[in-house]
């Protein structure tokens, strides 16, 4: 009970907890990206760290946040066509936090996080609806047959795992051929009725994401909203280890959630994703 009391006390100030986890995630991401264009990043990091270390108590400016945001902008400029979705998500999460350091209005920060979440999830829904390949189930059919999603669970089905490995080997052999020869392969289904399953799963994905977006827009702090949001996050992690992006979504959940136990679940998801990111497992 003593430890639970300490945990509850720690989670009481959910904004501080969310900002701490966001800063941790941001620092890890900056470290991962640090080797790219290191010649320019060394002086930026050196000056930022020196100013933060010696002047953090004398300056009213959030120096470390601004320095990290500058590095995010730098990477966006140089690797615009290569950075993943979580890079943009990080930038749009850090900006409201920097503004919050100046205006100190919790309601504005939470509204910004809420609208960011709604826009991100609804954009995902629209992108899927506009993709005939996704809505037909072809995307899931292809990814399931080569074991790129639900790959962990395939280990419990040796026959299906063997089929997925055979499909991947066939794809690699096809990629090595001259495309002008017109060669093709036929994928073997890892499970029966995979075409129908893929079609239903695609529509279920869109329906769940749309429902979550509307719930966050309408009732951003309601317990049912966060149960739906947590279900979506955990469902995506079971489907595919999108560790970086799911960690950021969970941090947004901490910002908006008023239930202590659900906050703890969000924190556990963030910590788990961070552990996977640091050990380079999943898609970070």
Automatic annotation (TrEMBL):
<feature type="transmembrane region" description="Helical">
    <location>
        <begin position="115"/>
        <end position="135"/>
    </location>
</feature>
<feature type="transmembrane region" description="Helical">
    <location>
        <begin position="227"/>
        <end position="256"/>
    </location>
</feature>
<keyword id="KW-0472">Membrane</keyword>
<feature type="transmembrane region" description="Helical">
    <location>
        <begin position="262"/>
        <end position="283"/>
    </location>
</feature>
<feature type="transmembrane region" description="Helical">
    <location>
        <begin position="197"/>
        <end position="218"/>
    </location>
</feature>
<feature type="transmembrane region" description="Helical">
    <location>
        <begin position="62"/>
        <end position="80"/>
    </location>
</feature>
<protein>
    <recommendedName>
        <fullName>O-antigen ligase domain-containing protein</fullName>
    </recommendedName>
</protein>
<keyword id="KW-0812">Transmembrane</keyword>
<feature type="transmembrane region" description="Helical">
    <location>
        <begin position="86"/>
        <end position="103"/>
    </location>
</feature>
<keyword id="KW-1133">Transmembrane helix</keyword>
<feature type="transmembrane region" description="Helical">
    <location>
        <begin position="38"/>
        <end position="55"/>
    </location>
</feature>
<feature type="transmembrane region" description="Helical">
    <location>
        <begin position="12"/>
        <end position="32"/>
    </location>
</feature>
